[in-house]
Structure formats: structure tokens, C-alpha cells
Amino acid sequence: MSSSDLGAFLKARRGHVQPADVGLTPQPGRRVSGLRREEVAMLSGVSVDYFTRLEQGRERNPSPAVLNALAGALNLDADLREHLFRLANIAPRPVNIVRDVVDESLQELLSGWAHTPAIIINRQLDILATNGLADALYSGFAHTENLAVMTFLDPAGRAFFTDWERATETCVANIRLALGHAASHERVQELVALLHGQSAEFRLLWDRHDVRGKTHEAKSFQHPDVGALELEFNAFDVRSAPGQQLIVYQAKAGTPSADKLRLLGSLSVTI
User: How confident is the model at residue 268 (pLDDT cuts 50, 70, 90)?
Assistant: First the structure.
């Protein structure tokens, strides 16, 4: 099939999706039937120019990650997604079921780490499980369901993350990476729509198209009870639950941060 067939399909499907279907608020006086190109580009994490070239048949080699992201933005079911891949001459990959339930044994492992903050997240940065010290670490936030929402939308975020700009950049790069996974695109799409609608900083960063996952890094925090904390974290994929990651924080031995982490642990026990 030709690139013009792919472009025609994308244009047609764009016309079938209403803003409310993908978590967007329609603007007054809207005359467009379906989604605008700009809206599809935003939800799928590609540039408007790139999506325009796809629709016009001038872009011939979209990657599987881009196709998965477009399928999510256009609310394609399994049959339509498979057709989209065929139009691009790419064999669709099976969609793995994403589990947002943390295995009981893993939760018990986290709970046993009394001196180490640890959390389980999914690709879109939802916090699925925590231990007691992680709860104490994030105690200044009103809600702790999603790291990106905490960073961008909770007033505590700017004070908690010492380098708030770096924290926001990391969140956006993680979310953009998640867009390429078909199994989680619906939740990612909802998150992008929420943040795009409520945060000017998110909108600016989203247009930069940075892509990055979590590995190993040092972070600085300003905790409301114990003050400045310098912690390192490591990220581990949960092999039994694709899409889940274990994030473990630690302070270097003998540092003020190690003492403060112990103090935070004792405070959490007495509260």
C-alpha cells in the first residue's frame, strides 16, 4: 500500500474522534469536525509538521513507536491499529497486557526496607506501591498518585524538587517514551491531555520532543520536616510485570542526608 493510503486513513480517523473522547476540552466556537492536526500531534508526541507530512503522504517510514502513539491518539481499536500498521508496511507487534496491580511479594519486599524509600511506578509515572519511608518522603504532597502530576500541578512540587526545572524535564521525557507502548497509550493520552491543559511549562517542554527513561541519578529534595536531602536512585524493571519499575532511593553513608533519612524514618513511626 502507498503512503497516500496511510495519509488518507489518518485524516479519516482524525475526523471520527471528538476532543472529549481523548480528554480535551473543546474551545468555544470550534468549527472543526473531529480532532485538529495540532491535537493529534500533541497527543501522539510528534511534531505538527511530521504529522502533516504523514497525512499528505510525504513521510513514508513512521516507526512502530510512532504508529502506536498515533493509534492511541486516534482511539484505534485492535483491528484499526492492525490496519494502520499494514498501511505503513510494518507487522504489528502483540500488545502485552499491562498490570497496575503490584504483586504481593513485591509489596512485602518494599515494606521490609525500613531505611530505604522505595516505590513501584508504571510507564506513565503512576505510583502503584510505596513503603513507609517513601510515604514520609512525599508527605508534603496533597496527592501522590502520579509523579508528573505531583511535579507540575501540586504546589508542593516546586519547593520539594530543588532543581524543579530538571524534574519537569525528566517527567516529560519519561511520558513521551511511554507513548510508544500500545498497552498503556490510553492512560498516557489522558495524562498528556491533563498536563497540557493545566501547565504552560508542560506545553513548552512537550514541544521539545525529549525522550528518556529512568536509570540511575542523584536528586536533591527539600523536605518540609527534615530539610535538604541528597539522594541517589536506581530504577529496576519488574520482569514479572512488564511496564512496572522499582525505584529505590538511598543516601550516601556518613552524609547529613543519611542522618536526615533516619530522622525522617523515626518521625514517620511516631506520627
Answer: confident
What local confidence, expressed as pLDDT, does residue 209 receive? Answer: 78
Cβ neighbours of residue 176 closer than 8 Å, sequence gap 6 or more: 45, 206, 209, 210, 211
Confidence label for 96 from pLDDT (cuts 50, 70 and 90):
low
Grid coordinates belonging to 175: 511520558
CATH numeric code, 104-270: 3.30.450.180
Is residue 166 helix, strand or coil? helix
Domain boundaries, the chain: 3-87, 104-270
Q: In the prediction, which pLDDT does 93 show?
A: 67
Per residue in 170-197, pLDDT (tens digit) is 999 999 888 777 777 778 888 999 999 9
Q: Which residues of 72-85 are buried (b: 16+ CB within 10 A; e: fewer)?
A: bbbbbeeeebebbb
What is the average pLDDT score of the chain? 89
Is residue 132 packed enough to be buried (19+ CB in 10 Å), middle (13-18) or exposed (0-12)?
middle
CA gap 168, 164 in Å, rounded: 6
3-state secondary structure 40-58: HHHHHCCCHHHHHHHHCCC
CATH T-level topology, domain 3-87: 434 Repressor (Amino-terminal Domain) (1.10.260)
**Cα-based torsion angle of the residue sequence 63, 65, 66, 67 in order, rounded to the nearest 10 degrees:** 90
DSSP per residue, 5-22: HHHHHHHHHHTT--GGGG
**CA-based angle 229:233:236, to the nearest 5?**
160
